[in-house]
Amino acid sequence: MLFSHRKIAVTVAVAAAAGSVLTGCGSSSSKAGGTTSNCTPVHKGIKTVTSGSLTVGVIDIPPLSSYNSGDPKGVDVSIVKKIAKEECLKPVWQQATYADAIQSISGSRIDMAIGSIDATAKRGAAVDFSASTYLDGMGIAAKTDVSTIDQLAKVGNVGTVDGYLWVNDLKKILGSKLKTYPSSVELKADLDAGRIQASVDAYPVLVTEYPKGSAFKIELANKHPDPRVQAIVKAPEAAFPLTKGNTSLKTATSEDIVKMRKDGTLGGFLKDAGLDPKLADVGATQYIVPAS
Question: 0.90 cut: is pTM over it?
Fold first, then answer.
């Protein structure tokens, strides 16, 4: 989710295994590598790496996206499938990571990547971005009610993942009570074991780790902006990085995403994943996280 955060720090390498092919527009009548004869795209003349296909790198960050052994699932996957259907393109899925996605796009091995990738100035030097899909919210998990920064400061020891945008701001507020971890895995282990009393992580990650009925309550910190933590005052926005200079693809995906936001489709995808549909309420002008 999104920051000077680890994703921002990530550069790139090369995409891994090629994924299976799913069908977009005209499902059963689609032809490998091409559009269907009976499908009219909303936007004509879209250029892609392989004509008629939309090659997508899928990063594992459920519930937003998961390669799932070649049968991708998640919010971002649903958005891309909708775009592909509208544009008569056949989705071709490839497994990707934060370390290789941008480079794979720059190298014309894939058209775009998904997986809650924030629009940042650093990434923007190598790729273009579609319209924003949703806010990359900061979540708080605790057994007691902790929804504000003031409450977080009183709960006890707090953990978060090193590299997130909010880390330095929280250090100033929490001091020695803040412990950082290399990943969400170690963070969750200490929260579950009671070694810390609250976890601060990407909101969708926490929702997945602690579903309703668990011992922990999940709060979206962005609902209570605090000027001391800029990441919840101005939340990063996730978007799809695209081949730089491919205006036909950028225009089509962006207009399709805006349409999905306006008609509620995008909020529905988030709700179906157990997330707050208000995360789709991005700004009128895309927020690009400035280079640090």
Answer: no
